[in-house]
Write a structure and sequence with these properties.
Number of helices of chain A: 4
Order of helices and strands of chain B: HHHHHHHHHHHHHHHEEHHHH
Largest sheet of chain B: 2 strands, antiparallel
Strand content of chain A: under 5%
Structural class of chain B: mainly alpha
Structural class of chain A: mainly alpha
Distance between the termini of chain B: 33 Å
Largest sheet of chain A: none
Oligomer: heterodimer
Distance between the termini of chain A: 38 Å
Number of strands of chain B: 2
Shape of chain A: elongated
Amino acid sequence: MGFLGSECLLFGGLISTFLLYKTRSDGGQTPHDLYDIAFTSISSFVLLMSSLTMVLAVTAIARGDQRALRTWLVTTACSARSSSRARCTSSPSS
Amino acid sequence: MTAIDAPLALGSGSEAATRPGGVFARPTSSTGWRSWVTSVDHKKIAIMYGAASCFFFLIGGIEAMMIRLQLATPKGKFLSADLYNQVFTMHGTTMIFLVVMPLGAAFMNYLLPLQIGARDVAFPRLNALSFWTFLGGGIVLNSAWLLGGGADGGWFMYAPNNGVMFSPTHGIDLWVMGLLITGISSLVGAANLVTTVINMRAPGMTLFKMPVFTWMSLVTQMLLLFALPVITSALFLLLFDRLFDAQFFNVSKGADPLLWEHLFWIFGHPEVYIMILPAFGVVSQIIPVFVRKPIFGYPFMVFSGIAIGFMGWGVWAHHMFASGIGPVSVAAFSVSTMFIAVPTGVKILNWLATMWGGKIKFDSPMLYSVGLVTMFTIGGLSGVTHAVAPADTQQTDTYYIVAHFHYVLFGGALFGFIGGLYFWWPKVFGYLLNDKWGKINFWILLVGFNLTFGPMHVLGLQGMPRRTYSYNDGYGFNVWNFVATVGVFIIFISFVIFGWNIVASYRSAKKAAKGAKLTVRDDPWDARDLEWMIPNPTPVHNFDVIPTVHSLDEFWHRKYGEDDDGRLVRIAATEDVMQKGDATDVHLPSPSYWPIVLSAGLPFIAWGLIYTLWLCVIGGIMVVAALYGWVMEPSTDPAAGHGDAHHDEPSDPSGDAAAAPADDADEADEAASEAQTEEAALVD
């Protein structure tokens, strides 16, 4: 719990900086140019689900269920791949 | 660890078995320098924390004396304005991050496991990692002196003054990297010690039977856990500004100059309590022993500490009353700041009430504790005057502020820690410090301290600005500045006496021991807590048998009871209550090379980011190699004690839990659930 709180404060500092500077720009790209809400939402969803499938894989092997372990590990690998691809394609910067 | 110590040697383990997986062997030395650099023993790590903070205290102290020499007379010529800025910045940073914090960490590392009846901390290798990382960070920070000059923006390093434009040397870069690395150290330490206190208390020790020092340490570590991430994010932004041309703090490009101030003080104010709460814990241990009474209002002591821990988060903007944050914020933070004086006042009242009516013995530790109570009260009162926003607008950035925080940090934290050193020295090193010299040391320190920082109140109210490197004749600052400079050399003399006391007491103890191992009679102070129930110095395995706790001040209640009239009577001789320290075959965590290797990589990455990325490659290889070595080294050295003779010893699948509370958990189950949490963490 404490460690989640610790993470929250780390990102709290970064996110509040983001919110503060969201509308300011030195003539470069703005958040509007950089982030695509639809892609970001989907890849975040896939990322979170991959945590879930990983946990399911772990509980499966704790039960000794090899088949379920394989299913969930493959699912995790696929979702990790798709989410990283989504991220690559969703950033039009560079 | 140190299975080589005669009483602990198992004798049956074969040499080849130290590398059972065919990979990295764990080191086995128990003597010499190798035993220190590979140690995962919380006692050795605590001693190293203490020694390192003494070294940095010397550096910070020399910087303090340079500041005072420059200001001794008007138009001082000792330092240039530029060098003066570097010296006061490095003095503040060193004293806060490399002296007071690690000194607190030294006490906590040594005492927490002993006070809760454990054999080590929860993660012994991580404990070693925190120490070496801290040392690496301190070295990076101070390497600035050899690499073109220290940081020069004050310990709070306000934007935009911290930008490359205003500070083109690498001083601030090294400052940022040094603090990021010491931040890793504190965060690792916090996670470790919180886990230790929560999970590893002896049977029967509920949270409200923990000694006050343990409680205050727990609050401190929770504060660290939440405060450090904020400064980390601020330091990252500054790092990107300075090294990679980001514009987070560049006001000319439209950045908000208050951003840094807010981020810094959201960390910075809890930091103040991080420094003072361990010292509060120390005197809460010392005072009851020397008045032979239990601490007055134990629950109030604990809850006021917790209250400080929570309220410390709601007062940060009182550092910014002069920054134009608006009348509503000023009023709100003014009230909350006055309010936080209440739990602190509760503590002071409780110490006084503990002393009230007691038979006070003024041995050196007690003198320092009374010193803390009085000096901290002065600093606390001037602190309340800062809370009053209209008054603060007059005081801010004057020497009055400097006087205030030296009264709370030097008069508070350092007095408490020096008292703690006198008190626990026999526990740690096996000989008592000379009490007569301790008292002389105290009185000289008290006089020097008040001569140095007392006049700063006057100077500040007269309007002498803080951080000024010079002042003109005829401002009325001459007399008190000169007095303060005299005072700092009296403080210096008192620390020389302290050092001499350590050496002289060691020599006379060595002489009296006639070649035998140094030891102090059991329980020299007639103390109250578990750490005194074991021989001095502490045996390597701490407790022969993990004690079962029945009450607060467990050790005292095993020695003393009450007769029918409520008078104190001895119910057991000390030697019958004491553990002998002669247990054999105790399972202890094995030493490891990897914490120091990993920590050694980090400074190279830091220097590499600033100078040449090739150094980053070297540092990165060291870190990655150390991570692999760490993971692959055999979890427990097979030649070490297994605890077969002790059925209270827990199973230890990770090799890192020296003395988890005994339970009948199935080993496989435990391993599985641990693997599960680790996997979950990996996925995140």
